[in-house]
Design brief:
The complex is a heterodimer of chains A (241) and B (107). Chain A is an all-alpha fold. Chain A has two domains: 159 residues, no CATH class; 55 residues. Chain A is built from twelve helices and no strands. The mean pLDDT of chain A is 91. Chain B starts with a helix and ends with a helix. In chain B, helix 4 packs antiparallel against helix 5. Chain B is mainly α and 107 residues long. The chains are: A mainly alpha (241), B mainly alpha (107). Chains A and B meet through helix 3, helix 4, helix 5, helix 6 and helix 7 of A and helix 1, helix 2, helix 3, helix 4 and helix 5 of B.
Amino acid sequence: MTQPSARSTCLAGARDSVPMLVGAAPFGIIFGALVGTAQLAPWQGQLMSLSVFAGSSQFIAVGLMAGLAGTLVIWLATLIVNLRHMLYAAALLPYVQHLPARWRWVLGFLLTDETFAVVESYYRKHPHASLGHWYFLGSGLAMYANWQIWTVVGLVFGAVFPQLQTLGLDFAMVATFIAIVVPQLARVPHLAAALAAGSTAYGLKDLPFKLGLMAAVVVGVGVGVLLTRLRARQSGNGSAA
Amino acid sequence: MTATIAIIGMAVITFFIKALVFILGGRMAFSATMRQALGFVPVTVLTAIIVPMVLSPHGQGLEWSWRNPQLVAAVFSVLVCAVTRHQLLTIMLGLAVFFGWQFSLGS
């Protein structure tokens, strides 16, 4: 069996991200189409996709700009909406800590919900992957290029695709996340954490700035840690009996 | 001009949030509890993202019916994954059921 190379690992990361690319496409187009409604020039819309590279905050920003909100409000919203990425980075840190600074800067920049999901799953299965950062890079670059392309399509053709949201292409992301999460649900603390997070997320879904999402993560993680500790204590008591 | 400044500010803030932890790298030490907590981030965050999308795909109310292709396909995907443990198969079959069901419902 041939040893994986940096190149093949990189391509694997991109390949495993394909469903995510499909899922992100309609959002890229819709974002591009919305740029004009916020009195932004097309180049400014593309600049946002190139430099911010965070879909939900881009949507919120465009909405705020259309409503003539102040710059500080936009920055605050960006901060809150994107805060979850810090959790992603913390979760992935053990796998990238050893890398040279330039790798960490680039991989950090490329981090998104989708790349986090794909890469975390990969590292979970290959905890000692010496080429893991290439996988991460492949996923990140694929998502990045994809986002720029669909932004352009939206900027140019936006008005032509009014029914895009009803196509349901983002189900590709749902299916992928299910495939990643379900195997982890065999453990009780993880199942409980998922149930807690899912119900909190649904209950708070109408909160602005993805606050419902953050709350769901806090609640889910709390439940997971609590249950893990309770079980550890139980098995500790059992063995002492 | 104001918009451009807003965009650049957004970029700086977002990059800071995403990359800070990676950049500080070795200087960050997590407690055992923190590491345990971080272990639950993937399962909670991914679930939190998709549950509203599946239960309320049009962003309005709860669509708890067999006429909701996201829900039907999601349940199906969960079952396929639980049985086969095969990631790619889950995704492909899930998408097939989703688009097939959506199409046959005529929505």
